[in-house]
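BUG: 3D viewer hangs when loading the predicted structure for this chain

Environment: internal workstation, default settings.
Expected: structure renders.
Actual: progress bar stalls at 90%.

Input used:
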Amino acid sequence: MNSLYPLRFRSVLKETLWGGRALKERFGKKAKPGSVIGESWEIIGMPGVSSVVSNGFLKGNTLEEIAEVYMDELLGESVYEKYGTEFPLLIKFIDANDRLSIQVHPDDRLAAERHHAWGKTEMWYVLDAKPGAVIYTGFRKKVTKEEYLDHLAGKKLDQLINTTPVSAGDVFFIPAGMVHAIGAGVLLAEIQQTSDVTYRIYDWDRVDASGKPREMHTALALDAINFNLGSNNLIQKKPELNRTVLLAESPYFRTSLIMFDSPIIKDYSLTDSFVIYICTASMAVIECFGHKEEIRAGETILIPASADSVTIIPRETATLLEVFVPKKQK
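Structure tokens produced before the viewer hung:
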């Protein structure tokens, strides 16, 4: 069996009501002329929806197929033990030309019970934000279910939601159960559990192309909302040149920021997980297993768990997000 190498995948572009053109214009994502793209799914490995490799001898194979063959060599022993061959993370770029619906995601228990799926804890790394852009996360104050339902019925839910002005480099950690929305004028990278379960709560009274409002999930959302969660989830950390800066960590993913202008050697011998690089600025060359792959802004690369070390060589000053699944603490 041939050995693994740094894997690239074809982006899967999603047209949305609220999307824009930044993913095409800024990152060169190839979309149909005139299309409005809200999301670019970079790495996904759910049954029936799986990224397709675009480089090397595995080109044309899906991530799901590769995981079935290489198992812990690709995923890591502890990751494979917990998730099997289902890839545990979904990586996206999101272009919110208009604000998204206010929504919530169920936790693992509720998602398993209702959908036979994983819950959705996620984080956002803001790549760009227009003047006045905001992110909506959590409630401004302690809220009862009765207050929440009253404001929802009166179409004034936004009065309860915490609103944070946003700038490039800001990080937001969104645990399952937290109400949230991305405001208009925000371009970001999203790291999340592998789940596509979303309960829409309020969609700003929008209608689709046929004049119909989108489906809301009021009853399902009520049980999913964690009314005890705080709203202080903005993370602001300055990059440190040629150092790895931790941004967010949960049982599902650990994400760090690397800004560098000289080669870096990363030691992953004790990580026991695949590693994902998301390039947010400039470009770099990734070297491992004797292979070299370029990564440019708006691109992602998956490093198999069997890689003990990776060399990253920047062009000028480059910035990457580094993502992997942390080991379970004993």
